[in-house]
Write a sequence for this structure.
């Protein structure tokens, strides 16, 4: 294994700041090896894809990156400095936001309340301070309009909105709090074609704003539409990475299924 | 707005149901008020209206607190036992050690019961039904053991000012009810704690994922219910100047009925203080009307039970299609 050399070479080549890096991550559950010496880069201003078959270890990897799980070995670096988060809250405080598949929205509460859920704005003096509902509504609307072109009514309960709108709200919330890295697990899995496009636009907007975006996707068409660089996991091992501008769906499928022999990295491409 | 079409265009039936659920209570309340005013001369006397206010203060205080428990996705079946506990503990202490210590002791007893419920539900993970039915049964049993299930007297008669006295146009019990209501309405609708009660009732997983300490919120909810039940127990003591082991029997059912009639949902996440107040007085009007029409008091639980089942039925039916906030 010459990971270190390979990656150092890769970083020099691309000349981009690597916002979130994981090196030599291993994780076992009992006797099952979920991840074996896995490394990945998630760079700012790019959309990074993570693909692989069911059980390849994608979810385990993003749960380690968002500090839901502890790795058995390996390191995670944020902006070049090693980090050791003990809880998802710590990871979030450091700028790593995760959009969960269930979106973590309270359907009975209005859009603004969901965007501010757990970070409510208050006014007044300490023991008697009250919710500043008006300011939250106004600022939530501004936040949302920065990331999404279709504006749901800010006072509507999120249960009355479409799946795409709910996804956009969850993404806008993740992006709104000074975060650097946004991790998304199958962000469009439950959406129809039109809604998928709308959410992809939101995700592309994150890249344009300089966020480091990591998405898990099963949809290769989407990966080729949206993603700049894809990493392929197979049975707990990182098979390799490709810049999609110079790759083909056939090559990626081959890497996912193990049909094609793979040479790590991609030379001077990209 | 344009892209919200699919889920907002619900059927006419659903919309009617939604309207009924939101404003049906107001319509029914006003209609009942009109009918009673028109048909019963003795209904519209100041004395009768004061009676209604007086009689519903105790249940009203409990219902306001119960609103928190139901919005959070639970409920509390121990409020009747809690009020009786506060009544008995308060009366005993008033006899032995004076009124201030009696009030403090009663509040402490109710709060302790609420904290126990909250601990069982939030930290031990016991289902609210089992936890509060269990504590209610245990507490009621302990009260019977310690009092031989007989009322005891000797509370200073001056304390009846709390239960029977009047200040200005309103009974003192009603003033206390008003103060509790306004305080709890403020807490529920204006503070972060109240906001979190809605959040955990709406989606407890989301609330936890967004960093809300859901267990602490639940603990606080049941503590608040216990303390409020104690306030009701103190008023009950003030009505009879005695400790009443049998006090507040089945009040939990009346309180839950009022809250559900007021638009809250047993599934959690929905409800509000204004609705609960309307629910309390709707039940109060029905009970008053039965009285004035000369219907036997034994019919009272029949009416309450029927209203509860109807309200829950309307709620479950409408909930199939639309969730609404409040």
């Amino acid at each position: 294994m010459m990971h270190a050399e390979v990656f150092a070479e890769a970083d020099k080549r691309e000349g981009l700041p690597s916002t979130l890096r994981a090196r030599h991550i291993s994780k076992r559950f009992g006797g099952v090896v979920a991840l074996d010496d896995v490394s990945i880069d998630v760079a700012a201003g790019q959309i990074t894809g993570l693909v692989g078959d069911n059980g390849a270890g994608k979810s385990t990897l993003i749960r380690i990156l968002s500090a839901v799980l502890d790795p058995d070995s390996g390191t995670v670096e944020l902006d070049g400095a090693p980090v050791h988060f003990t809880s998802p809250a710590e990871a979030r405080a450091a700028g790593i936001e995760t959009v969960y598949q269930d979106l973590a929205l309270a359907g009975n509460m209005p859009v603004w309340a969901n965007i501010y859920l757990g970070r409510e704005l208050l006014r007044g003096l300490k023991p008697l301070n009250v919710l500043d509902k008006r300011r939250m509504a106004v600022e939530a609307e501004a936040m949302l309009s920065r990331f999404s072109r279709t504006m749901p009514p800010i006072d509507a309960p999120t249960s009355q909105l479409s799946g795409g709108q709910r996804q956009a709200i969850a993404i806008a919330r993740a992006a709104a709090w000074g975060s650097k890295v946004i991790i998304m697990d199958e962000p469009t899995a439950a959406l129809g074609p039109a809604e998928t496009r709308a959410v992809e636009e939101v995700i592309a907007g994150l890249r344009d704003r300089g966020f480091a975006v990591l998405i898990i996707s099963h949809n290769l068409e989407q990966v080729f539409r949206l993603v700049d660089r894809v990493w392929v996991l197979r049975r707990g091992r990182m098979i390799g990475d490709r810049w999609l501008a110079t790759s083909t769906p056939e090559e990626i499928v081959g890497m996912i299924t193990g049909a094609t022999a793979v040479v790590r990295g991609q030379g001077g491409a990209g | 707005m344009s892209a919200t079409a699919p889920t907002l265009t619900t059927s006419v039936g659903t919309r009617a149901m939604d309207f009924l659920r939101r404003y049906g209570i107001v319509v029914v309340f006003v209609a009942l008020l009109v009918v009673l005013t028109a048909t019963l001369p003795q209904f519209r006397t100041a004395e009768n209206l004061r009676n209604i206010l007086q009689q519903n203060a105790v249940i009203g205080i409990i219902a306001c607190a119960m609103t928190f428990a139901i919005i959070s996705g639970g409920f509390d079946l121990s409020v009747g036992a809690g009020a009786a506990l506060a009544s008995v503990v308060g009366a005993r202490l008033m006899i032995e050690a004076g009124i201030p210590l009696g009030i403090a002791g009663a509040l402490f007893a109710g709060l302790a019961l609420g904290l126990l419920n909250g601990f069982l539900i939030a930290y031990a993970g016991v289902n609210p039904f089992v936890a509060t039915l269990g504590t209610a049964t245990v507490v009621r049993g302990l009260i019977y053991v310690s009092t031989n299930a007989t009322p005891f007297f000797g509370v200073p008669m001056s304390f009846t000012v709390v239960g029977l006295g009047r200040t200005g146009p309103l009974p003192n019990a009603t003033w206390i009810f008003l103060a509790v209501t306004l305080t709890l309405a403020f807490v529920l609708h204006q503070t972060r704690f109240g906001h979190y009660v809605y959040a955990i009732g709406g989606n407890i997983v989301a609330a936890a994922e967004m960093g809300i300490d859901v267990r602490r919120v639940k603990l606080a909810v049941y503590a608040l219910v216990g303390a409020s039940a104690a306030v009701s127990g103190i008023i009950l003591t003030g009505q009879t100047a005695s400790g009443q082991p049998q006090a507040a029997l089945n009040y939990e059912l009346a309180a839950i009925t009022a809250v559900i009639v007021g638009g809250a949902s047993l599934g959690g996440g929905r409800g509000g203080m204004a609705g609960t107040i309307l629910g309390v007085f709707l039940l109060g009007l029905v009970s008053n009307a039965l009285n004035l029409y000369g219907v036997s008091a034994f019919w009272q639980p029949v009416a309450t039970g029927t209203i509860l089942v109807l309200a829950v039925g309307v709620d479950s039916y409408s909930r199939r299609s639309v969730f609404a906030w409040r």
Summary: The interface with chain A takes residues 1-4, 6-8, 186, 190-192, 195, 198-199, 201-203, 205-207, 209-212, 269-270, 322-325 of chain B (CB under 8 Å).
